[in-house]
Write a structure and sequence with these properties.
Elements lengths: L1 H32 L2 H8 L2 E6 L6 E2 L5 E13 L9 H8 L3 H14 L5 E7 L1 H8 L8 E10 L6 H4 L2 E3 L2 H6 L8 E3 L2 H5 L1 H5 L3 E7 L5 E4 L15 E3 L3 H10 L5 E7 L4 E8 L12 H10 L8 H4 L9 H10 L31 H6 L3 H12 L7 H14 L21 H8 L23 H12 L3 E3 L4 E4 L11 E3 L7 H13 L16 E7 L7 E8 L6 E7 L9 H14 L5 H9 L6
């Protein structure tokens, strides 16, 4: 029995020793090998603060600053670190109600008990100054510096776009973004988001029991510096953009001007517009709702998105197609009277028959009906459909009927009708040149965007080639996209442009030119008036032009909605823009005054 007790004593002792060894090993592992508890303890005295990079600046082509950054402050909250505090005092400092304060705390807890979330976005510097010295009284709260955009020229809102909070879809798609982060929502801010946004950094701070920062953790060993976004230089001319917006004040429509040789967009005016600063900061949501409810649709980018029938501005293209297809010649004349001129009659009183140059100068409808008929009835094609397909291809080659696909944000395709479209409505074989005659004068189913119209004008100015329209000129330390240098052939041989350009020159210089009142003595210009029928109201005034004639520096399209003839409003606005860009001053003050004072908006 004594022997059994002795053996049991050794067993118990062995068990105790074993347990002691296991306990010591575990303790060693936790305290020495495993750093999780250490990190957790240290985290109670640390604050990890994301360092948001300065967003890249945006300049115009001459180096004028269009967009820069201003500091803003987000009040952050970690619910786990909260303790009792004076809610009335905090609400007063933040200029919010007690109910808003409690709702904010509730939302933060729902988001995460342990992770920081934005309690109050974009505090002003005044609010931040008042809060900073009392922040230690409100455990769990801390301030994080953010960047807001500012637009000093208050122009080009549709081009530049705006920055807003990243939505859930973007956060799930791109790991760069977290809840509360900002991103480009529209315009160049969105198109060049990856270049402009930069790279986030991180600061790890030591904080005391009152949640006050006492310094960097381990002398900044775990800090990571933010990398600023890359600045971009746009093709915009800020002075020309601002002048265009002034001319279009109290008018609905657009102006798009392009440098023909480079495809760089000099200005892109959409009217009515808005001050881009309205969509910055805490006021953005309320201002957006107001703007979106405005019946004049100031948020709608007409320059890139609106679609219009081009009217008579399409006649030079019809002439070029006729010349290329060898159904029209420089000596060809058509009469404005008699059976052949019907069913599209001429609206101008001029000498008849008329030749190619004169038909453009005086915008003869009958002439272009007969040109179009000769294209669609061209005997080198087996039938109407094949001839129409050839005609349509020229339209597509000139950039119509499809998106340009460069850095133009949210652009429309416009519309060039297809064989399938006419087969559907008239049955296969049931339509002819006569059926679709409205296309001859830029009406019917043709719809174009203002930027497409300006690009077409640049093609004519270049005698058949172009670089796709774009807004980017340089990106800091980066190569530009291919579309900024690729030259495109538009499908019409260069030798056919001379008589067409001569006709556009006579629009200003000819005795009966439809824009002869607005010619510039010092600059030879080429243009074409257009009056587009509008089923929803008065006709649209349209004008295209380029200058100088033989060494073009600017090509432009102007559309003024519901304002009548092309020479009444769009024509003079286009010539003022050309004068401003090429000379830097306006001598025709009487024209300028009438355009600026003109109010064509009827609410």
């Amino acid at each position: 029995m004594n022997r059994a007790l002795s053996e049991r004593k050794y067993v118990i002792a062995a068990v105790i020793v074993l347990l002691t060894i296991i306990f010591l090993i575990k303790l060693f592992s936790i305290q020495i090998l495993d750093t999780k508890l250490k990190i957790s303890a240290e985290n109670n005295s640390q604050r990890h603060v994301i360092q948001y990079p300065a967003r890249g600046l945006i300049y115009d082509r001459k180096g004028k600053l269009l967009v820069y950054n201003q500091a803003a402050y987000d009040l952050m909250l970690v619910p786990r670190e909260m303790d009792e505090f004076d809610t009335t005092n905090l609400a007063s400092i933040l200029d919010i109600t007690i109910e808003e304060l409690r709702d904010g705390i509730k939302l933060a807890k729902e988001h995460s008990w342990y992770k920081p979330s934005v309690f109050l976005k974009q505090m002003s510097s005044v609010t931040y100054a008042g809060l900073q010295e009392k922040l230690f009284k409100f455990p769990g709260f801390f301030v994080q510096t953010r960047i807001l955009r500012y637009y000093p020229t208050k122009t080009a809102a549709h081009v530049l776009g705006y920055v807003g909070e990243a939505n859930e879809r973007l956060i799930n798609k791109d790991s760069y973004y977290k809840s509360g982060d900002y991103t480009g929502i529209s315009g160049l801010e969105k198109t060049y988001e990856k270049e402009l946004r930069g790279k986030k950094g991180l600061k790890v701070y030591l904080v005391d029991v009152h949640n006050r920062i006492k310094g960097s953790y381990k002398d900044g060993a775990y800090d990571k510096a933010a990398v600023s976004g890359k600045s971009i230089v746009t093709s915009l001319d800020a002075d020309l953009q601002g002048y265009g917006e002034l001319l279009m004040n109290n008018k609905i429509g657009s102006i798009v001007a392009i440098e023909p040789g480079s495809g760089e967009i000099l200005c892109s005016v959409s009217s009515p517009g808005y001050d881009p600063n309205l969509l910055v900061g805490r006021v953005r949501g309320n201002n957006y709702r107001i703007l979106s409810k405005d019946t004049l649709e100031p948020l709608f980018n007409r320059a890139l998105t609106a679609k219009y029938p081009p009217g008579s501005t399409f006649k030079p293209l019809e002439a070029l197609i006729g010349l290329q297809e060898n159904v029209l010649h420089t000596y060809t004349k058509y009469s404005c009277s008699g059976p052949s001129s019907r069913p599209i009659r001429c609206t101008h009183n001029h000498i008849t028959p008329i030749g190619l140059t004169g038909s453009i100068e005086q915008s003869c409808n009958s002439y272009y009906w007969q040109v179009f008929k000769s294209i669609i009835n061209n005997k080198k094609y087996e039938n109407t459909e094949e001839a129409f397909i050839a005609w349509r291809k020229y339209m597509l080659d000139f950039g119509f009927g499809h998106k340009i696909n460069t850095d133009l944000f949210n652009e429309s395709s416009g519309n060039i009708p297809s064989v399938a479209f006419y087969d559907k409505y008239y049955k296969k074989g049931g339509w002819s040149a006569l059926t679709i005659r409205s296309l001859a004068i830029g009406q019917g189913e043709i719809l174009v965007t203002p930027v497409q119209l300006a690009n077409y004008t640049a093609i004519v100015a270049n005698r058949g080639k172009y670089v796709k329209p774009h807004f980017i000129k340089t990106i800091e330390d980066e190569e530009l996209p291919d579309f900024t240098r690729q030259v495109v052939f538009a499908g019409i041989d260069s030798n056919y442009y001379k008589p067409v350009i001569e006709g556009m020159y006579e629009v200003f210089e000819g005795e009966h030119g439809t824009a002869r009142w607005y010619k510039l003595d010092s600059i030879p210009m080429c243009g074409k008036t257009g009056t587009a029928e509008n089923p929803h109201g008065d006709d649209h005034s349209i004008f295209i032009a380029f200058a100088p004639k033989d060494n073009p520096k600017i090509a432009i399209s102007v559309i003024v909605e519901n304002s009548g003839f092309g020479s009444t409003w769009a024509g003079p606005i286009a010539t003022l823009m050309i004068e401003k860009y090429l000379t830097g001053e306006i001598k025709r003050k009487w024209v300028e005054e009438r355009m600026i004072k003109g109010n064509l908006i009827h609410k």
